[in-house]
Write a structure and sequence with these properties.
The protein has 141 residues and is mostly beta strands. 6% of the residues lie in helices and 23% in strands. The strands form 2 sheets. The chain has a 4-stranded antiparallel beta sheet, with no helix packed on it. A hairpin with a 7-residue loop joins strand 4 and strand 5. 16% of the residues are buried.
Length: 141
């Protein structure tokens, strides 16, 4: 079982996520001008890299945001997790010149910026949580 670190929610079990295919696949500039073979190659042909591979993932049962992940396909090691629209890091975590596929608009749901605000929360344990976050008596985790 993989433990995936969502850029918005933190580390979660892999069952909360859905794989979205290869990341950084550029949409054709003029799709109407493509012949059937070129369109099929865009839709269905993907790299099958052994080693570091950039993938798109959706945190489907959490924040419901898309993000990119650089993962080693041999060892399943997660090398980097980064928001949509940012360049792909290399295997050492440094950014490369390649651009991301998501929108960079501030209100875009693909950039990860639409996550709920956590500015009023505290994890130090020194403050009392708001009444709306306290579970009813008898509730279980």
């Amino acid at each position: 079982m993989l433990l995936i670190s969502c850029p918005n929610c933190g580390s979660r079990d892999e069952t909360e996520f859905h794989y979205g295919g290869q990341a950084h696949v550029a949409y054709p500039e003029n799709p109407d001008e493509l012949n059937d073979r070129e369109w099929a190659e865009f839709l269905f042909y993907r790299d099958n890299t052994k080693g570091a591979f950039a993938e798109r993932w959706l945190h489907s049962t959490g924040c419901r945001q898309w993000f990119n992940m650089l993962r080693d396909t041999v060892t399943y090691d997660i090398l980097a997790v980064y928001p949509m629209g940012t360049p792909r890091p290399d295997a050492a975590g440094r950014l490369t010149a390649e651009t991301g596929t998501g929108s960079t608009a501030a209100d875009s749901t693909t950039t990860g910026t639409a996550a709920p605000s956590i500015s009023g929360t505290s994890i130090s344990g020194t403050s009392t949580p708001p009444a709306s976050t306290i579970a009813p008596e008898g509730a279980t985790k």
